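>> Question from a student workshop board

For tomorrow's exercise we were told to take the sequence and the ligand below, predict the bound structure, and bring the output to class. My setup keeps failing. Could a helper post the expected result so I can at least see what it should look like? The ligand is D-xylulose.
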Amino acid sequence: MAQEAFPGIGPVPFVDSTSREPLGFRHYRPDELVEGRPMKDHLRFASCYWHTMRNGLGDPFGGAVAQMPWDDGGDSVENCLRRADAFFEFLAKCRIDRWCFHDRDIAPERATLRESNADLDRVVAHCAALQKASGVKLLWGTACLFAHGRYVSGAATSPRVEVFAHAAAQVKKALEVTHALGGEGYVFWGGREGYTSLINTDMKRERDHLARLLHLACDHAGAIGFKGQFYIEPKPREPSVHQYDSDAAACIAFLQEYGLKDRFKLNIETNHATLAGHTVEHEIAVCRISGVLGSVDANSGTDHCGWDTDEFPTDHRLCAKMMLEIMAAGGFTTGGLNFDAKRRRESFEPIDLFHAHVAGMDAFARGLKIAAAVRADGRIAAFVKERYASWDSELGRRIESGRATMGELESLALDAKSWPVSSGRQEMLEHILHGLM
Ligand code: XUL
Ligand code: CO
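>> Workshop helper replied:
Here is what the output should look like for this input. Compare the format with yours to find the bug.
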């Protein structure tokens, strides 16, 4: 048997909710039923390869510090295979049964796409075997269309047609390997699809080209029989000053404008929502009402910082607010909670990977239980229903169904001297909500 990457650790135990053992699940119980559904099916946790295995925790001021004794730092396929072994060992010990990756996380970029594809195939075959042996599933795959220098001005939105061609070819292969691994979804995150200055940018052409790549991907999925869900992941800035997929509403409008809404849903990321000036609950709600909530990249940010810090979501109150919206949308089907999160630079020991994921998983488990309690309590939902009750009147129904005319409404309004408005009771509702947390 290969040498263990995490000797002396795990499987992470289930401990009492009052336990003082830090590396243990105080709330997460995979098979415990919440609203009749096992916790693990509500939460559908995934770990991402790029942060868990490939992030050395460097920052703009200093290099990698993460200790990864299983990784020799080279770009041989053998090193890639050892890394995959370490990752699947981590998943099993941490009780996570899904994962996500970019093509270039798991296998290196070579001089030509042909050579890169050949090495990717070797690593994918190994990952397929690891999946089979462990029962772990692929939540989604994607292509890295932002790291290589050819993508300096975007991939689908590059001013160079040759770069578009390369991006399309890379997506083709990434889709094929996602399909080969039984992926439940495929993500497009904008990467460098945006602009730094309008002065040198043909925005119409760039958006048209982005939509063209998405259509090509849909066509190819049909050709190879990939029935997984496509997702777009909104983010307003970073790395570009303006990203075309800036927030959920902008993405939905884009999908509608280009005839893509049937095939795509959204992958909402907490820290991207805050960068867009929204809460993550807002972004999930926007998806919910449009029927496009797909998946969630679960992380958190530092509100007063303005950078995508990709911190682990360890605050159960944030998780409860997210779970309330996710449950209101009917819960996940193909999607899940992917920890698109990295440890702080100072948390550089291998065991910190466990502490970080366990903290996030437990926060979501607790958040799930709180959300279920809020729904069972019912006072907040009842208040909101009552607040809009006048719309259930004959007049409300006539307006909502489009039967009322301006003239009819004017005749009701012209001589009115009082209006039955009532308090929104925000503080009372917050008191109820926080009391249940
Ligand atoms: C970048 C980001 C990506 C996507 C996948 O901010 O979130 O890691 O999730 O490309
Ligand atoms: Co993400």
